[in-house]
Amino acid sequence: MPKRTAAPANFNIDRDIPVGKAILLVDNLGVTQERDGTLAVVCVRGRIDSATSVQFEAELDIVFADPPDALIIDLTDLNYMSSAGLRVLLVVAKRARAEERPLILCNLAPGIREVFDISGFSTIFEIAATRAEAEARVRG
Known about the structure:
Blueprint: H1 13-16, E1 21-26, E2 29-36, E3 39-48, H2 53-65, E4 70-81, H3 83-98, E5 103-106, H4 110-119, E6 126-128, H5 131-139
Parallel strand pairs: 3-4, 4-5, 5-6
Antiparallel strand pairs: 1-2, 2-3
Helix pairs in contact: 2-3
C-alpha cells in the first residue's frame, strides 16, 4: 500500500477542505469526493499508476459503499494515468453498469484523452468536456 505523505506546512484542514468534501492524499495522488444529493463527484489530481491505483480503487469503493444515483469523475487535475488506472476505471464502469448508475468522466487533459483514444476506452466511457456538461447530462 502506498505510504501517506504529510500535508504541506501551510495546510489547514479546517480552512483548506470545505465542509462536505472528503480528501485523500497519497504519494502523487489526491482524491476528493463531493455529494450533491444523490450525485457523487470524485475529483482526481496527480498520477494514477501502479503505486497509487490500489488506493484510488479503495476510494471509489467508499463511494459505492453509499451508492450515488450517478457518479462523475472529474479528471481536471490528473496529469498521468497508466494502464493500472485504466483498469480501476474499467472495474468502476462495470460496477456502475451492473448497478444501473450513470458514470461520466469529464475534463480529460489532451494527454489523458489520447490514452483513452489509443486504448479504446473513449468508446467505453461517456466523456464530457466539462463538469457542468457532465452534471447537465446526469440531471437530464
